[in-house]
Design a protein that fits this description.
The protein is 54% helix and 5% strand. It is mostly helical. The protein has a two-stranded antiparallel sheet with strand order 1-2. A hairpin with a 2-residue loop joins strand 1 and strand 2 (47-50). Helix 2 (53-77) runs antiparallel to helix 5 (142-170). The protein is globular and about 50 Å long. The two termini are 21 Å apart.
């Protein structure tokens, strides 16, 4: 089955994100190296994340809210118990993650914008893609909704994982609370991604579609071209979990 990946379309990564703004990506091939990160940005295998705490937190908040809204829609539009269960988990997880983000921002006297200000054309396109995805999902029901929602979830989490990893590498002087948050995200997001991949695989089986996706639910971050935000639609980062490194495993 030909799957649409948020991270590829939106070049997303939050942190994501996202739900995904933080990733500006350059194609990575054996013959070329990723372009160096712009000032104020951290890079990890083509994924980008802002090193400014406020900018990064705004992207996390955006991703969390995007994931929650999409999952709430899934609860209404899906008839598949696996998809509905996944959506419930996403609501619970991202609600808790967003509370952590907002509480930390408050301790730092930071007022976070609901919509991060795009820093480049990739982020603008990513945010527009997020809106387009939500608009599309609102028109779908049943199996068409499930296929669109779950395929985008896989890509969105790939993007979010990359964004978080970029932030972990770049925000070396971040407060202890931020470092802890990044560690938690790097452990949780891969789990979310794995659950989405498994649910998508069941949908493929139900539709009798041969899988042309990623083997074993793993993703080589260096093999994809990413944009500016990793997130719910793959544009701005999302939540992370599980094992991190060159290869991300599902949660």
């Amino acid at each position: 089955m030909k799957r649409t990946l948020h991270g590829v379309t939106l070049a997303a990564v939050l942190f994501t994100g996202g739900v995904s703004l933080a990733q500006s990506a350059a194609p990575t091939t054996p013959a070329t190296k990723p372009a160096p990160a712009a000032k104020g940005m951290a890079e990890f295998k083509g994924f980008m994340a802002p090193t400014d705490p406020k900018a990064f937190l705004e992207r996390l908040h955006y991703v969390n809210q995007s994931e929650i809204k999409q999952a709430e829609l899934a609860q209404k539009s899906s008839e598949n118990p696996d998809v509905k269960s996944y959506a419930k988990m996403m609501i619970d997880s991202h609600t808790a993650a967003d509370k952590q983000v907002m509480d930390f921002a408050k301790t730092q006297n930071l007022k976070l914008a609901e919509m991060p200000k795009a820093t480049n054309d990739m982020e603008k396109k990513a945010m527009a893609a997020d809106k387009a995805l939500m608009d599309k999902l609102q028109t779908l029901k049943g199996m068409p909704f499930d296929s669109c929602y779950m395929s985008n979830q896989v890509g969105a989490h790939d993007a979010a994982i990359g964004m978080v990893m970029a932030a972990k590498q770049g925000m070396t002087s971040a407060p202890a609370e931020m470092t802890t948050m990044l560690t938690q995200l790097s452990q949780e997001l891969p789990k979310h991604r794995d659950m989405a991949y498994q649910a998508l695989g069941k949908l493929d089986d139900a539709m009798g579609v041969g899988g042309a996706g990623m083997q074993g639910g793993s993703m080589d971050h260096g093999s994809m071209n990413h944009g500016s935000m990793g997130g719910s639609t793959g544009t701005m980062g999302g939540s992370t979990g599980g094992t991190t490194g060159d290869t991300t495993k599902t949660k």
